[in-house]
Amino acid sequence: MQLKIHSVHFDADSQLLDFVQAKIDHLLHIYHDIVDGEVYLKLDHNKAHENKIAEIKIHTPGKIMFAKEQSRTFEEATDSAVEALRKQIVKHKEKIRRGM
């Protein structure tokens, strides 16, 4: 799977990029048909505390899944977004299984 990670208005360090990559790779253990994905890490300048945003979009055959979460740290936001995607993947797999 090819993953593009974009950090908007800041430079993400390699530790954060590795963390995000590892979390997305974990989704591959759940669903092998993920083709590619994009991650946007953004800062919300209007908020003081929960100003870190993680937006994750993954492409699978016939379906695009998206999650956006905001938290105090990029790691927390990424964890929450990946968990939301995991739930979407489980639902999608159940739909496929029922259809067969």
Structural account:
With 100 residues, the protein is of the alpha+beta class. It has a single domain, classed as Double Stranded RNA Binding Domain (2-Layer Sandwich). It contains two helices and four strands, in the order E-H-E-E-E-H. Strands 1-2-3-4 form a four-stranded mixed beta sheet, with helices on one face. Helix 1 (14-30) runs parallel beside helix 2. The longest helix has 26 residues, at 74-99. The chain is elongated, with a radius of gyration of 14 Å. The relative contact order is 0.18.
Salient structural properties:
100 residues, alpha+beta, Double Stranded RNA Binding Domain, 4-stranded mixed beta sheet, 33% strand
Unreliable stretches covering 5 or more consecutive residues: none
Tally of separate helices = 2
Bulk shape = elongated
Calculate Rg over CA atoms.
14 Å
Fraction of residues in helix:
40-55%
Number of domains: 1
CATH homology superfamily name: Ribosome hibernation promotion factor-like
The span between the termini is: 26 Å
Helix and strand pattern: EHEEEH
Give a brief description.
By secondary structure, the chain is an alpha+beta fold. 43% of the residues lie in helices and 33% in strands. Strands 1-2-3-4 form a 4-stranded mixed β-sheet, with helices on one face.
List the helices and strands and how they pair.
Layout: E1 2-8, H1 14-30, E2 36-43, E3 52-60, E4 63-71, H2 74-99
Helix pairs in contact: 1-2
